[in-house]
Design brief:
21 strands; about 475 residues
Length: about 475
């Protein structure tokens, strides 16, 4: 570790013991895929029997082997367990016929797709191996025309799908494959879907679908879009993500309110209550005054109510009161009625000019409190957030997209899915064109705000190995 290129690098040393038998239940997941971590293994005997069971959870990206064995250990580099390591080097004794002097140490690696087996990088010299790229050259500069077997599904629009017009394979993934294969010199085959027609998840302790084919080493890798969740990160390696998007809830856009409701909608319920109360008070005051004064103004409660009701209806009075205070009362009442009727008329014109809709939902909390149920909300199942727990309790799972979209169009459910996927599904396949549906809210995946899902909501497009 005195090597200058390694002095600023984190490293992990594994002590397997000389006569210790490594058992799978002793595997340490913590020794996993740190991008900037150098894993250093020193061995006296062949380490393969110890590393193979450990490899299920270990899978280092940068591995340095240091042999202390009495004989050459170059054959170790050809073990399949090391074939997917990004950076691999072995420091071992150079055969005497290769160096011309005994006990000379050299640095070796293997290019998996090269015609030669073990590549000699040079005799060990700390002054020469001063940079990381010298000690760890690119193991995959090209693939020498190798034919990769891809596990794919052609139902992954817009990443990988089959066009209905000409049955040609299209999407961003196929365009990237074309560029990569031309640059790195490889060919490939693809599958229309997995044999079990599943996507890729753990069922009864076994991977199924596309990822199951890769896990069983039936296929090399896939270029379909996968969500980054803990079990996938643990068992598979992925390329850099080229797309990330959130999960959204889609609702049927509410229909305009019934026309007959426009009669009382211009004023809020509290305003209507105040108008009715003021009319009752005004009728009561005039009726009481008539009885106290002993002189009828319009004659009884019914006539008084009709007399004062002319004001809200913008009708003129048949006759004015004779006394001054009664005229002042009627003048104030008509001024009040003018304000109320003016507000009512203006709001009514606005309602008829622009159709109104019920109040839209804007947050997940409003969705939880509404009559809507959720559809396809698997991402929220294991969330610890209270809002997501309540939403999961109202969630209905459908056997396929058609049923969930039908429930959304019926106005009983919110369709919860990735925003890009849901938009393509609703517009292209189900012809639910905007504005018949609207995006309610985006479930935050950046650990900000109250609607946080964490890793499960990150849908990342990447190449999975």
């Amino acid at each position: 570790m005195a090597l200058e290129a390694m002095q600023k690098t984190f490293y992990t040393t594994i002590n397997l013991g000389v006569n210790e038998k490594w058992r799978p239940d002793q595997q340490v997941v913590a020794l996993s895929q740190g991008i900037s971590v150098l894993h250093l293994v020193l061995f006296i005997a062949d380490p393969t029997q110890f590393l193979q069971p450990l490899w299920l959870d270990w899978k280092p990206l940068d591995l340095l082997l240091f042999s202390l064995a009495p004989s050459s250990s170059l054959d170790v580099l050809n073990e399949e367990v090391f074939s997917s390591v990004r950076s691999l080097a072995l420091i071992d004794e150079i055969p005497s016929e290769g160096s011309g002097r005994p006990n000379a140490m050299g640095v070796f690696t293997v290019l998996p797709f090269s015609s030669s087996s073990v590549k000699f990088l040079g005799e060990w010299n700390p002054q020469f191996f001063t940079r990381r790229e010298i000690l760890f050259p690119d193991r995959f500069p090209a693939f020498e025309g190798y034919r990769f077997q891809l596990a794919t599904s052609m139902d992954d629009e817009p990443f990988l799908y089959q066009r209905k017009s000409d049955n040609a394979i299209s999407g961003s993934a196929i365009r990237m494959l074309a560029a990569l294969s031309a640059t790195l010199n490889f060919t490939y085959t693809m599958t229309e879907s997995a044999p079990d027609h599943k996507w890729g998840r753990m069922e009864n302790g076994t991977w199924v679908g596309i990822l199951g084919m890769i896990y069983r080493k039936e296929k090399n890798f896939t270029v379909n879009c996968f969500a980054l969740v803990d079990d996938r990160i643990r068992d598979f390696a992925a390329s850099e993500q080229y797309l990330m998007h959130n999960c959204g809830a889609f609702l049927l856009r509410p229909q305009p309110l019934a026309t007959w409701r426009n009669v009382f909608r211009p004023l809020q319920p509290l305003v209507w209550a105040a108008v009715i109360a003021s009319l009752v008070v005004a009728v009561g005051l005039l009726t009481l005054q008539e009885r106290v004064a002993g002189a009828a103004m319009v004659g009884g409660v019914g006539s008084t109510w009709l007399y004062l009701q002319r004001g809200p209806l913008n009708q003129s009075l048949p006759a004015l009161p004779r006394t001054v205070w009664r005229r002042m009362f009627v003048g104030v009442w008509y001024l009040y009625c003018l304000i109320i009727s003016g507000a009512y008329t203006c709001n009514l014109i606005a309602i008829f000019t622009r159709p109104t809709y019920p109040q839209h939902l804007h947050t997940l909390q409003q969705l939880v409190d509404s009559h809507y149920s959720g559809g396809l909300a698997l991402l929220i199942k294991n969330s610890k957030d209270d809002i997501y727990k309540k939403l999961w309790s109202k969630t209905d799972l459908f056997p396929h997209d058609d049923a969930s979209v039908a429930a959304m169009r019926a106005g009983t459910h919110a369709f919860i899915a990735g925003t890009a996927y849901a938009t393509i599904l609703l517009i292209n396949h189900h012809k639910v064109i905007h504005p018949p549906f609207s995006l309610l809210a985006v479930i935050d995946s950046t650990n900000r705000g109250e609607n946080t899902l964490g890793k499960a909501s990150l849908t990342a497009a990447c190449i999975v190995f």
